[in-house]
Hints:
Chain A is an alpha+beta fold. Chain A is about 55% helix and about 15% strand. Chain A folds into two domains: about 20-190, no CATH class; about 195-368, no CATH class. In chain A, helix 7 packs across helix 10 (about 230-245) and helix 9 crosses helix 12. Chain B has a domain at about 20-45. The longest helix of chain B is centred in the N-terminal third of the chain and has 8 residues, at about 10-15. Chain B starts with 9 loop residues before the first helix and ends with a helix. Chain B is mostly helical. Chain B contains three helices and one strand. The chains are: A alpha+beta, B mainly alpha. Chains A and B meet through strand 1, strand 2, strand 4, helix 7 and helix 8 of A and helix 1, helix 2 and strand 1 of B. Strand 1 of chain A pairs antiparallel with strand 1 of chain B.
Amino acid sequence: MISQTRxxxxxxxxxxxxxxxxxxxxxxxxxVKDEIKAFKDSGKELKVGEVSxxxxxxxxxxxxxxxxxxxxxxxxxxxxxxFKKELWDKFPMYKNKINIxxxxxxxxxxxxxxxxxxxxxxxxxxxxxxxxxxERKKLGKTYSSGDxxxxxxxxxSNWDNLDTLSPNLDATIAHEIFHSYQLFKKYTKSGEVGFGxxxxxxxxxxxxxxxxxxxxxxxxxxxxxxxxxxxxxxIPQTLRVLKSKxxxxxxxxxxxxxxxxxxxDAQMLKTFSADKLINDLSKMESFEDILRKPMAQQHTRxxxxxxxxxxxxxxxxxxxSGMTSNxxxxxxxxxxxxxxxxxxxxxxxxxxxxxxxxxxxxxxxxLL
Amino acid sequence: MKNPLENLxxxxxxxxxxxxxxxxxxxxxxxxxxKTSDKSNKNKTDN
Lengths: 368, 47
């Protein structure tokens, strides 16, 4: 007979939320909160700067940085009341460096621009050379390829009450730890390092962003949202947010899911328009456009022209850095010769991936 | 215009390869335009 716990575990895994990461998400969320709290309680002086906030005006802001060493993070993990060795063995994250930076702005400056309080930008950084789990005396197998960066944009009210960093902080940590888990599972199951073809596209996104080309940056951002390993990480992230809400029926669920970042991401995928992007790149509405857009158009043209060359260089570099190389298949010359066909091709891909993300999100109802 | 990757060093490319998320910092930079990140430093310089 299968136990209720096992049934629930199977449902969670089918929905894309592995039990193996839950404990580490709880521990790391507390670690980040405790570090920020300790910084605050220590009376350490924050930097004070000046900023101009869109739709709000000039203001002062405060900022700080905290670095948690690999050794310190491990000491925290193993002494946490949440730590259970038998759970940790399934995903033995070991000695992760964590860099936290935060900016504190007036609440109204965030509210008026519809920015989450707090908004958290995060990155998971892995080391291909350390992806192989190591055997250690007493501990057994350990996995030490994963550092994290968390950049928090918060309101004064978040700083006054650090509990309000949840559930956004927990959700972001779930997302990043899931990436570490994806890489761990991929390596332990198949011996492959990295996410394959999508990894190449993710690197291309980062390499092509230019300050002066916000139209193409938008396309690149949607391309990033369309990557399956990114979509998968949005599932445990969203579940963390939904679990903090009072959801009693399907209507409550739909109302709450519409407020999540992942729902917004799915909408962005569904509403991407090749025609609009091309129109945005060409229309001149201000003096700034006259200066900037010719450069943006040129950069877009060159990015599309060199698309396959860029992917090839990334794959080659990846091989040298220890990533598993995948057969390289570029885009057809017909698509690369015509920007409209190029963006139309991606519009179809994004539409399909938007549907997939919506479907994955609705499956979370079974877990609430 | 140069190949968009031409200016990227191997080190920068390596950083991009080993990061699994692309921070939206450029979105926030459009909203928060920092004039001075640390006024105490500015004052020291001014003095």
